[in-house]
Amino acid sequence: MSPTRPVRLALLGCGTVGTEVVRLLHEQADDLTARIGAPLEIAGIAVRRLGRDRGDLPVDPSLFTTDALGLIKRDDVDLVVEVVGGIESARTWLVEGLRAGKSVVTANKALLAEDGGTLHDAAAEGNADLYYEASVAGAIPLLRPLRESLHGDRVTAVTGIVNGTTNFILSSMATTGAGFNEALEEATELGYAEADPTADVEGFDAAAKAAILASLAFHTRVTAADVFREGMTGVTAGDMASAKEMGCTIKLLCIAQRRDDTVSVRVHPAMIPLSHPLAGVGDAFNAVFVETEAAGPLMFYGRGAGGRPTASAVLGDIVAAARNKLSGTRAPSESNYAKLRVRPIGESLTRYHISLDVAERPGVLATVAGVFAQHEVSIATVRQSGRADDAKLVIVTHSAPDAALAATVEELASLDIVRSIASVLRVEGGAG
Amino acid sequence: MSPTRPVRLALLGCGTVGTEVVRLLHEQADDLTARIGAPLEIAGIAVRRLGRDRGDLPVDPSLFTTDALGLIKRDDVDLVVEVVGGIESARTWLVEGLRAGKSVVTANKALLAEDGGTLHDAAAEGNADLYYEASVAGAIPLLRPLRESLHGDRVTAVTGIVNGTTNFILSSMATTGAGFNEALEEATELGYAEADPTADVEGFDAAAKAAILASLAFHTRVTAADVFREGMTGVTAGDMASAKEMGCTIKLLCIAQRRDDTVSVRVHPAMIPLSHPLAGVGDAFNAVFVETEAAGPLMFYGRGAGGRPTASAVLGDIVAAARNKLSGTRAPSESNYAKLRVRPIGESLTRYHISLDVAERPGVLATVAGVFAQHEVSIATVRQSGRADDAKLVIVTHSAPDAALAATVEELASLDIVRSIASVLRVEGGAG
């Protein structure tokens, strides 16, 4: 195509993110043209229904259509920008576009995590670009560094706070001492949590992002189904208090770790030491901590959600895809050569913080310690406290397979001397 | 070139970074081949003198040469990797390579900051890539996000801790209460400071990086000569203590700020509030805080120096340049269309923290406040303390042009009632 003709894009979706994409395209038109070498033009905007009041959106109303597929197929469309979400329709649209050689920019984490392989295959087939920076950690430039900058290095672990809603809730619990329900209520009032917060608090959203991050970090296709997921609704004010006593806080983490030729990918709440860079990530912010063999620890921090931050990431991808269109080149295609095995959670190495209410009588610690030894779980620290009627044991283990830890906890629960298991939390980030 | 033939590189320099580049090329050969689609081969290594013992470096000794220019010109060299440093020779080599169409990967911040334009022009002339991720903040993937990810957004400010030596010194002063000399001594003993620490403590190193960051962030050529620079040797234990009293710490910052169509680029020590994400960046770590119109605040954190971290960044660039070679494409070329004016320091908006020893007599505050008013500098907070023979005034201003602030301080110094100006520090990051 000639460098003087505009690069034309089909925008699929005009909700929170879509409207901000339209606004930014308008506000920054001169800069974008200078950076790309040609103007960007909206060829059409696919929406679910026409006639909705779009307020002061700076766009010709005749551009709206309900025929997404028809829009994508138009000859004058160079790029497809998808900010609708959902699986089935989006997959159809994006595969159609990619196969026809139209580059795709998408923020659709659910689709990428469930079936990114199909999209990557379609991109290869159509010799088109597939960009999705906005799908993980919103505005934070994170995927491009993983896709490109760190390709001369070997990533050993990615540990992230990738869900703003749950980070807001946990930060609020840590600061105010509130319980989960109270903190959730506050998050809902402030607009940080949706009316149905399931996808956030049960870790589904974080698990999708974990799959995308693990795929990029380890050059291996990882899907949401491969990710162990445990929500954070069970984290209590008491857990947070005992984390504090240990010099820790509790975060909902997405973790992807390499060991030899396997990877562990999981989402769960975990204690991390206050000295860990992720511990200071408050409010609804996101941050991703990356460990590599040569570069050492890296951290990327910023806003993980919101229309405008997400639109910023989408626009960055649009600029890249448009430049490639003009110069007839492509971004590096999917790298999945390593094909590492994903370890089930039972094989994952992790550490537990276990709080037990026990009978106050001689020999309790010996019995409890014996259960750990029997499962080959090594104890790092024990704290005993309590009165005659309310004795407590707080045990932190060394690293061990999750299955051994789970079996230890199960057996502890069956002991007469153990009145109840007050809490079990995984411990990450070198917390002691 | 055919995808089966190796991509061959000329390595210029085999010091701390160069040897780690060689090691990583060797250790990760299989991964690099898979990611690039062809093996990487070292065509030759230019060094100052042959015959030096390179220990167990996994490389054929016949590859070493003292003829850098001859090596670059060889037909079988695709990429030139420069990790020597210095200005004159490096410029000659890189311009030669770029003009001949050989892509360049360099860590040479001094050359890029002094005369990056010449390198970019040569790259355009030879249709070659110029990558320099390792030149700023070592291993942190920072330039690629600025060069690409944020191109759909408008950067308003970049504030960075980009010199590990001075950050180690200031972190140590903040933690232990030590003075500058004591902390410098410790840094030297631990290998964080060089025998001659001038480039670090006087801010020359940070100023070079500031020029590179400002150029990328603002699409404008900014050179080291444009950067206002003030070292951190004058920061005292007393300054650090009074920062603490204000809930702040002191960091050597590189700052690039856009206002309308001008930019301010400067390096100086400054107070920042402990709540600012940069305040927690300890030891010799680097971090860069980026503010944009749409994405909101972003931070990039990691190791800024060291052979292996720097080599990781060099390798990432080598992979990108090699991929482009194989597919016959180029990275986005220099973006300098904005051509914003660089404001002199006098026009920069900043805030001052001024500590005065004053005579203890009525009317002192009124006189001092009058001087501020006369220069149209608005006072944010005043603290008065002291005994009859040792009264102190600590004043923090609102934002004002640096020239007005400097003139205010000069006039204060000339007042009879001002016994001495104990310290003057700029205040950044919203500190109050």
From TrEMBL, chains A, B:
The active site is at K209. CDD domains: ACT_HSDH-Hom. NADP(+) binds at L12, G13, C14, G15, T16, V17, G18, T19. SUPFAM superfamilies: ACT-like, Glyceraldehyde-3-phosphate dehydrogenase-like, C-terminal domain, NAD(P)-binding Rossmann-fold domains. It is an enzyme of class 1 (oxidoreductase). Residues 353-426 form the ACT domain. Pfam families: ACT, Homoserine_dh, NAD_binding_3. The keyword Transmembrane does not apply. GO terms for biological process: methionine biosynthetic process; threonine biosynthetic process. One of its GO terms (molecular function) is NADP binding. Its cofactor is a metal cation. Its EC number is 1.1.1.3. NCBIfam families: PRK06349.1. Belongs to the homoserine dehydrogenase family. This is Homoserine dehydrogenase. It comes from Actinoplanes cyaneus.
